[in-house]
Write a structure and sequence with these properties.
It is globular, with a radius of gyration of 26 Å. The longest helix has 56 residues, at 152-207. α15 runs antiparallel to α20 (541-554). It starts with a helix and ends with a helix. It is mostly helical. The protein has helices at residues 2-14, 34-45, 49-62, 66-90, 97-102, 107-144, 152-207, 217-223, 245-256, 276-305, 316-324, 329-349, 351-361, 380-396, 399-424, 432-444, 453-457, 466-492, 502-524, 541-554, 559-583, 585-607. Helices cover 70% and strands 0% of the residues. Residues 137-155, 229-234, 431-439 and 604-608 have low confidence and may be disordered. The protein has two domains: 33-217 and 247-422, Amino acid/polyamine transporter I; 427-556, no CATH class. The chain has 22 helices and no strands.
Amino acid sequence: MLWRALRRFGQKLVRRRTLEPGMAETRLARCLSTLDLVALGVGSTLGAGVYVLAGEVAKDKAGPSIVICFLVAALSSVLAGLCYAEFGARVPRSGSAYLYSYVTVGELWAFTTGWNLILSYVIGIWVEGEAEAFFIIHRTSISLNVFVCWGSGRVEAVEKLFILLTSVLVSLRLLALGASESALVTKVFTGVNLLVLGFIIIAGFIKGDLHNWKLTEEDYKLAMAGLNDTSSFGLLGSGGFMPFGFQGILRGAATCFYAFVGFDCIATTGEEAKNPQRAIPLGIVISLFVCFLAYFGVSSALTLMMPYYQLHPESPLPEAFLYSGWSPARYVVAAGSLCALSTSLLGSMFPMPRVIYAMAEDGLLFRVLARVHSGTHTPIIATVVSGITAAFMAFLFELTDLVDLMSIGTLLAYSLVSICVLILRYQPQKDMKIEEEEVELQEKTPEAGKLTLQGLFSPLNSIPTPLSGQVVYVCASLLALLLTVLCLVLTELPVPLVSEGPVWIAVVALLLMLITGITWVIWRQPQSSTPLHFKVPAVPFLPLMSIFVNIYLMMQMTAGTWARFGVWMLIGFVIYFGYGIQHSQEEVKSGRLSSKSRAKTIDLDLSN
């Protein structure tokens, strides 16, 4: 009896949502074009980072080789972006990574993903709000000297009040405008931002000096000749294009990776895009490409205009134009910064209600959050809750304590989407004609329905079967576990491993052998031939590479960050096990099926 109860409970945790083929009816308005999605993705990604991050990374971590850092970071983001693109073509619904996990790996993982996406979006709103508050308050206070006599405590209070008001106003704007009008505002601001960035890139190449990419220690000494303190020479690197070496590029790339976070908001528009199977993949790929060009161009122009060691981390572009003799260009940069921050804040606020709406629609969160405004066709309660939550988070916590949580939530979502793509590519198609072909094939080759050594490494079928799909499901789960262990080992060990003794070398070698063998098993299984507008190339290798990169970056987080992550997940599990597991739509469906089966049994008994 106890075993049956535990078995039923376990089945609830891994039950998957079933979707009808094609685009289902939705209560949201399908009004967003491909251009709207590109503007949303670019606006969400090109926020404060493009105006601030390049200076910080170039000065302290990479120097002129920051252009390579952005290239590496872009390639890492593209790995996840391609997986999102395939799922956008495969599952055109709201919910992004939450829904992708629900239809592939089950309800508990789906709730975990959605709960972490909410956290990521909340902190993302907060980060952009604080950046905008810093820009407006501090840049204004420099010229007006209003806050000089206030003290830092009061200035921080004003910043937090500004974030609260901004978050509430943006959420109200989303309620008042709706998706199509918000997309129009985003397109206008994003267009202005791209024009400003284009001006920065062209001006930077005009005013730039190639000598700034091949500086020497003599240049450092000449630049600091008038200073008495020369103790900081060692922090300037060794000169040249890569003053901090290859290690500096890796450190810079790890920081630049988060500059590309934001494109996943496109995947939340599955029920508001006019043609989601085509628009979502195109929107993700194009927005990532545009963002890479912008980051690459701005960082190149910045390091050409000014020696990297003289960059101002908080406002590198205005200082670079002042150094180059084009001080009026600072006002152009200021206009672009405000447009970028506004669109990024709007882009961070846009997807969060969609995820909450999707989870509430499925019954995993409170049903009231799934209410849709009759006029704008937007999730009204979810939007209000999003704005209030983001606003009050600024008063409850310090930004430095929680900013890494955004990275954990985002990287976890990226990893799960990659796993889901890997699993679904090898599952049998839910089509009557295909199922008949599978049955006929299994009748001709009875051994095809049995798990044998030959079936693992050289399957006889050319199309996926339930057995081959189950093999891939188990192998993908094992690979996720082994990659996590490998990342833990690599995080704890310095490079090279030779200095750590033969035991660690044997551990790493064993893990790599197991990963290679299981990957080979997956690669040998038949893939689904379902026609899609976009498919991830080089499966299973590309998704596995994405999983490895994401997990490795997650392992760089501190113990305190993981402790706060545990508290957030504890709150989520209380909601899920106290409410969601009983009110899930899949639970309701199973209850209806059980009622129908019982009714049929009663009818049969009466007829007999």
